[in-house]
User: Fold this.
Amino acid sequence: MITVPPPLLKTKFDLAVPYAQFVAMGEPAGHRPPWDQRYEQLQLSPEQHALIAGFTRKINILCLTGTWCGDCALQGSALQRIAEANPDHIDLRFILREDAHADIIVKSQINAGFRVPVSWFMAEDFEPVFAFGDRTLSRYRSMARKMLGDDYVQAPAPTDPVATVLQEMIDTIERVHLLLRLSGRFREKYND
Assistant:
């Protein structure tokens, strides 16, 4: 479990930037095209949009990522599409994995490595709810098929890998929302 204290998450969230500003940071190095491509490929279905638009608890999302990373472009663009479906309740920000953020990077190791992307899903008061890092399950299955052979992975290959990652990110955020919606402390606060 990736554990980062709420004050550090809040500090980094305040330093982080919205999607468009983050993507623009990669433009001088030629990193923008994959982000733009993934963003265009990722479209919410009407059902997905309705689900996300119905979320009623505030979710802050901080994504530690790199403009140069392909999986970051895919997950970051998916998170942006999701955030756009409910801007009143989903606040998404990005920070670049660089030395200036070493204090949070060292607390974000996965399998003893510094990987990206790593995203923290937080309540309105920046209390961590869930952390998610590196690739989604469908991406790991794809890698396993390529590296270990088709017989190793029992699940069928997705017909649309990009849409599958989008759904995996929606499922993650829905889980966070339900945890917050059912939370005793927020049900008491909002009397619902």
The longest helix spans residues 161-182.
